[in-house]
Design brief:
One of its GO terms (molecular function) is zinc ion binding. Keywords: Metal-binding, Zinc, Zinc-finger. It holds the Pfam family FLYWCH. This protein has one domain: N-terminal domain of TfIIb (Single Sheet), CATH 2.20.25. The N and C termini lie close together (5 Å). It has 91 residues and is mainly β. A 7-stranded mixed β-barrel has the order 1-2-3-4-5-6-7.
Amino acid sequence: MPGTKHPKIVLDNFLFTINQKKKDRTMWICSKYPRTNCKARLVTFGRNVKMTRGHNHDPVISDDMTKDMIVQKAHIIRCDKTFTEDYIAEK
């Protein structure tokens, strides 16, 4: 929900939570990090999302779970340096 205390991002059916906020960007970690030591990370700056490192587990979010989330269009930069335009869901 917008304005929630603990925002989340869903990308490719994986859930990310805020790890660190800086003036011009926000760093996100995989929500499964505490249990699986997953190294997947996101960095957001404006409507740009840079994804680094892959996940070491299966997706955690099903499509029906995202139906009530706010969907925003964003530019996705994946760790292999590809640049795509995609949609992210925020909880």
